[in-house]
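Milestone 3.1: sequence recovery, worked example.
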């Protein structure tokens, strides 16, 4: 602050011009960084990443930007709050979402964790709706997944 007061008092045009250029260049660089951040965030990230609630059942799906999808089943058999994480692949140009299934060892681990309250057939049936490839579309806060093979639709609301 004192430097600015001294420059005004001295009326030194050369120093004021130098400081003005530093301020302008700093502001320009900050504007470019902020613009780049928003452009990258808007166009480079997964467009369907986020948490979605299935309209027809108590299932919450979280699509992460690291190609993982978490399914949270609120009430499945005698288990409440069952969370299953699977790999997925999002193709933005084709607007497809492919959810890959669990390995047998992962299924066994989930069944052991719930100690007989959950059977393999119930788990497989619950996951079978999701382990496939989908065409996706988004409209406002609604995600529609359409099974590419059978055409069945699942509609999710943004949480």
């Amino acid at each position: 602050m004192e430097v600015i007061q001294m420059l005004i008092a001295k009326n030194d045009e050369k120093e004021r011009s130098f400081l003005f250029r530093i301020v302008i260049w700093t502001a320009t660089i900050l504007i470019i960084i902020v613009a780049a951040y928003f452009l990258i965030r808007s166009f480079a990230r997964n467009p369907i990443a986020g948490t979605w609630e299935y309209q027809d059942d108590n299932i919450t799906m979280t699509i992460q930007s690291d190609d993982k999808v978490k399914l949270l089943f609120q009430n499945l058999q005698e288990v409440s709050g069952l969370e299953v994480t699977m790999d997925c692949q999002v193709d933005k140009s084709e607007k497809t979402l492919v959810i890959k299934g669990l390995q047998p060892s992962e299924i066994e681990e989930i069944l052991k964790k719930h100690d007989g309250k959950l059977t393999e057939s119930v788990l497989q049936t619950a996951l079978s709706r999701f382990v496939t490839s989908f065409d996706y579309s988004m409209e406002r806060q609604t995600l529609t997944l359409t099974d590419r093979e059978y055409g069945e639709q699942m509609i999710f609301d943004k949480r």
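Residues 13-43 form the longest helix (31 residues). Residues 1-44 form one domain.
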